[in-house]
Structure formats: structure tokens, C-alpha cells
Design goal:
about 475 residues, alpha+beta, eight-stranded antiparallel beta sheet, five-stranded antiparallel beta sheet, binds flavin-adenine dinucleotide
Length: about 475
Amino acid sequence: RFASQTPPRDTRYARINDADLKNFEKILGKSYVKTEEIDSFNKDWTKWYSGNGACVLLPSTSEEISAILRHCHERRIAVVPQAGNTGLVGGGIPVHDEVILSVRRMNREFDFDPDTGVLSCDVGHVLEELEGKVGEFGYMMPFDLGAKGSCLIGGNLSTCAGGIRLLRYGSLHSHLLGLRVVLPDAKGSLVEFGSELRKDNTSLHAHHLFLGSEGQLGVITGVKMTCVTKPISVQSAMLGVNTFDECRKILRIAKTKLGEILSSFELMDRETIGVLEDNLQFSNVIKTNPRFNILVETSGTNIDHDREKVDNFLEYCLSERLANDGVQAKSAEEHRLMWRLRESATIALTLDGIVFKNDFSLPLHSFYQLTEEVRARVGGAAKRVVCYGHMGDGNSHLNVTSTKENADRVYKMLYPFVYEWVVKHGGSISAEHGIGQLKRPYVNLGKSTEERNLIRSLKTLFDPREILNPYKFL
Ligand code: FAD
Ligand code: S2G
Ligand code: ZN
């Protein structure tokens, strides 16, 4: 009921009939065309969205997807691509009766070149499984996120996922070399964009258009991307800090004193720690109940050198009274406990009632001001206002929880206030989770008409009958 106003079903789209299902079964085989027990595909992870997807199709090859899209183009049947269904904005959930095209079975192809670190694979691999497979060659995926056990690389590409390593390894754009895409046009065109080469300046690099396209331009079926060498030494430290200004100063010091080995700089405010303590009975690794926890991670090649660097960094922050407490992980177990705190925030919040999730990019000078203003604005109506996130990337996950009774009131206090506030302060209303259904009405905030019109003409170019993931931001 909080989801942004759902647009009415567009009558241009055909409703599927038995002949369609027969055709899908001819393409995929009966067992991969599901019309029963498809709730888990029609509901999203946050349980905010539930679609009426008429059926779920489970292809295992690009050719099968091409045949499906050819048929859907001809019959003008709306299709929503889906991967691991861990998206947090309802992007992979039908708004009405769109057919769900799941890439879960697209996990045959896997090829890795240990000389170049280039991964070339189908999009249905689970992120954590890819981490393990490239790990055998001494490499690591260049991004990591809390949903790694369920999200698929196809979904990560389509949302241009960020995660906890972006500060060090850059966004997925820095690692993308090529994509295999099936277009929703009359032929169901199968197009290979880019190559396996790090340097290939022979085209417009159009594959980058599909990063973050949220299933609206084409179905991504294969990827070629660079992975990074697995660090021999991963160190972490947790600092207790009293003011956000000091957190900003510590970030600058981390960048100079830890330099190239700095790989994560995550923030949790005291309220975030509170929801972890109350709902998961975790305890803070910092015992002085600080206003902020800062989790710093380094990834390097020499354990002794890195440990010493982190030690000097910690000592400096303490002696300069920027942090009032700090501890370096002395074992893999301590490292895991620190990260368990940070990565469990999402789960802890799901136990707190109705959760209004946010994912903003903000300039650091106003990063925490929004949380303070929201706290003042929602006051007693909300249960909790917490802020955690990838501070090193300026990415705030301001989450507000409420009881069922107060939810409508809190929702109206929050939206569109927070989106307008973010855009007014030079931020972005979506840092890494995408737009989906959640932010569709606000996607034009701060965007020029020229840009909007150009982007729309790209949608028409790739998806002439607008059958792919309709009712979303394009
Ligand atoms: P889905 O949710 O299935 O789909 C996501 C979008 O991609 C949809 O719009 C869908 O239509 C489209 N799509 C899927 N497959 C294809 C395809 N093959 N071709 C074209 N379009 C396609 N996100 C972050 O960025 N950073 C985080 O730190 C982070 N932490 C998370 C922690 C938890 C506990 C959870 C539950 C989620 C978190 N997320 C995070 C959000 C989510 O995991 C990411 O958005 C992830 O990239 C989604 O991948 P998925 O495979 O689940 O995709
Ligand atoms: C994170 C997960 C989703 C959320 O933990 O970094 O991206 O907002 C988030 O809880
Ligand atoms: Zn995040």
C-alpha cells in the first residue's frame, strides 16, 4: 500500500493464452514453464511488492530466450526479467500480469583466464559461487554485497550493484568488458557487445548502457568482466567516534595513511547498533557506546606491513582524539564479527516492523544532516531512524521503521520530503539499489527533459514494442 501509485494495466499488452503457453513449452519443455506455485517469483525480498505474473519461464540458453522474446514481441506480451530476486526496489516483480523470465537456470557457461583475470560466464551464477570459482585461481569478484548467497551476476549487472568493495575496486563499470544480450525485437536479436579485451576501442561501448538498465533494454545472458587478484592480507578495524565531522576527518586520514590498501569504509550510527542489539542480541565490538561505529578494511599483500599500517592509523586517530575508541581485528574470527555487525543491519531491521528503506548518495558535508532532520521530522511517530552504509562512497542507507498503525503517517512524513531533500543537496535518490517500482515517481527529480527524452529514445530503439519490464522507470 506504500508502493508508489501503481499505473493501470496497459491494454496494449496481450494476456497470455493456452497457445502462448504451448509455444513456451515447445521452446523450453513443460517443466520450465510454471503457472503453479510461483508466489516466490511474484513477491520481492522486502515483501512490499507482489505481482500477478501469469507464468514463470526458466530458459537455460540465450537461444531459448531469443525464441521467447520473438514470440512475446509478436504477441505484444509484457515480460519482466528476474535473477536472484533480492532486489530492494521491486524492479524484478511484475506490476500486473507480466510474464516472469527467470535466468536462474542460465549457469552452464563459465570460463576464466588466470593470466588476464577475465571472467566470461552465463548470468545465472550466484555471486558467492562465482567468488568461490574465481577464488580457486587466486582471484576475487570486484564487488561484494550482503545478498551474495542469493543474488545472481545477471541481477548485479542489471542494477549496477555497489556493495562494500566499491571504494577500492570501483563500480561494475570499471570491470565490464562485454555483454551478451537478447533484445525484445522482432527477431529476438542476440547481440554480443564488447569483447574479452581490456582495451578495445572499436565501438561505442554500448554494453555499458545495460548496466543498471533494470531489465528494460534487453535480457543480459552473458558477461565478460575483469576480476581482481585475491588479497593475501585482509585487515579490519572498528573505531568508536563521537561526531560525524570526526568521521569525515578519519576518512581523509584513512585515505592518506592506508592509501592503496584501503578497501572499505563503512558507517553505523548508534541507532543501527541498537537495532542489532535489540533484534539479534549482537553486542558492539566497541564497548563505549559511541555515536558512530566506523568499520575500516584493508586488502593488501603483506600481513605484517598492513597490520602495522592499520595500527599506526588507529593510534593516530586515537592520539588526535578523532576516535575515542578503536580495535583492530587480531584474528579471522574477530574480522568476521566486525563484518557480521555491518552486514546484519538489513536483517535486524526486517524484525523491527514496517521498514522504509533508503539508498542515497550524498555529499559528505550533508551526509548525516538528512538523518538528523528526518529524526526531528518523524519524531515519535517512527519507531527508529537509523543510518548505516558505505560512507567511503557517500552512500547512506537511512532506514526508518514504524509500527503498522503509524506506518501511513510516517510514510507521508518521509516521502517525497527525503527525495526532494537529497536532490536539493546535490545527492542521488538511488546510489546502488536502482529505481524499480519504489522510486519510479521520483526518477525525474533533478533530470533535464533533454536527457529524459534521449533515454526514452534508447528504450524505443532496443525495445520497439515496449514489452520489456514496462511500468518501470523507462
Ligand atoms: P533481481 O532482484 O532478480 O533483479 C534486479 C533487477 O534486474 C530487476 O529490475 C530485474 O528486472 C533485472 N534483471 C535481473 N536479471 C536480468 C537479466 N538477466 N537481464 C536484464 N535484467 C535483469 N545492493 C547493492 O547494490 N549493494 C548492497 O550492499 C546490497 N546489499 C543487500 C543486502 C541484502 C541482505 C539484500 C536482500 C539486498 C541487498 N542489495 C544490495 C540489493 C540486491 O541484492 C541487488 O540489487 C542485487 O544486484 C540484485 O540481484 P538479483 O540477482 O537479486 O536481481
Ligand atoms: C547494505 C542493504 C540493503 C539495506 O547493507 O549495504 O545495500 O538498505 C544495503 O539494508
Ligand atoms: Zn548497500
